[in-house]
Structure prediction request, 117 residues.
Amino acid sequence: MPRRHGRLPTWRWTYSVLGVLQYGWPGRETPAYDAGFNVEDEVVAVDDFRVGAGEWNTRLRQYAPGDEVSVLVSRRGMLRRIAATLGEAPDDAWQLEVDPNAHFLQEERVEAWLGIP
Prediction:
């Protein structure tokens, strides 16, 4: 059975600022939220290893769900450590369905969204 990799987000978005990982907001009921991450925390290191923007996924692949990690973040310029337990990686696929009981106005919105004349 292939090994599942650990994951700390689900953050709503991730972006790189001058090579430093910075996050939007951690969604409720996620490992990041439970650990205490805040909006715009900049991840500096995981388990005392510096993590650049391109290294985040590589670093987390070394861990499994349930592993505990120490994450060094910069929060408004102040360094702090956050102890976190990694969770399962969320599914990357979504399936959308049209509600067969949708109101005609909802159907019109779906058609407009999909570009159906």
The domain at 6-88 is CATH 2.30.42.10 (Pdz3 Domain). Strands lie at 6-7, 14-17, 20-23, 42-46, 49-50, 68-75, 78-85, 87-88. Helices lie at 31-35, 56-60, 104-114.
